[in-house]
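Q: I'm writing a short explainer about FLYWCH-type domain-containing protein for a general audience and would like to include a description of its predicted shape. Could you first generate the structure from this sequence?
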Amino acid sequence: MDAFANTNNNISFIPLNNGQRLLAMNEYLYGCNKKSVQKKYWKCIVNGCTMHIHTDDNDIYLCSGKVDHDHEPNSDLIRTTRLRQQMKQRVGGSEYECK
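A: Of course. Here's the predicted structure. Afterward I'll give you a sentence or two in plain language.
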């Protein structure tokens, strides 16, 4: 069974200066690990955590790994990362795209 099957899979994205994005879901952050024609593979950004999720090319949640995170969720990290990136965008004055 999918680890997130019975939870709210509210996905949002945080643009980064390098043109990439972080995916935020259920108080965890993921970085895009690889991309195929039909899927994007996202890995938890915490060192050592093996949790991963898949989205389709339109960023719709598909599934997650069979194991759970080996750390607690961190909503503060998501908020501070989002705020930091918003400040950088205001200073830089440009929008960032997902590559």
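A: For your explainer, you could say: The beta strands are 11-15, 21-25, 28-35, 39-44, 52-56, 61-64.
Q: Perfect, that's easy to follow.
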